[in-house]
Amino acid sequence: MRAYQDMVFATALRLTGVPAQAEDISQEVFLKAYENFDRLRDNSSAGGWLKTVATNLTLNHLTRHRKRWRLFSEVFTEQTPEVALESAVTAFDTVLQQMDEADRHALIEHALRQLPEHQRVPLVLFHFEDMSYQDIAIRLGHSLAKIKTDILRARLAMAAALTDSGLRPQRSGDATAQ
After folding, report:
1. Predicted TM-score of the model (pTM)
2. How many CA atoms lie within 13 A of 21 on its CB side?
């Protein structure tokens, strides 16, 4: 079980954005693992089970303790299509792929913690937990359109946070990025 403690903590931290809450949730996950130890001891899918339990306990925690989800006042206009906004995020993906893995991980984790919960949770579920938009909408009890909008806005906020940290997307032809 020790081999999975970092994965469990990282899963909870990505969703909550609060290390203390992630620690509490991690402890809960391992209490459940202890209760099911006979079944998990020699099971090759123990890691997947732990990740699923960590995700579910974190979502339950957020559901119980979060404030009401705020509706967005901003609406995309026809002059600001999602495709144009997505291209800004794609530029950062290229730069991130060229960074050292440890630096990239630290930057992403820091940017994730800066996101508001209503953006962070769907983004993490989509990108880190491989859930579909539809599954996220059902799990969180929101419309599919809201989930897509939250994820898109989270990506844009992440790009802004990465820019604030000094990271700049490369322009075509540039060999280096800051």
Report:
1. 0.56
2. 19
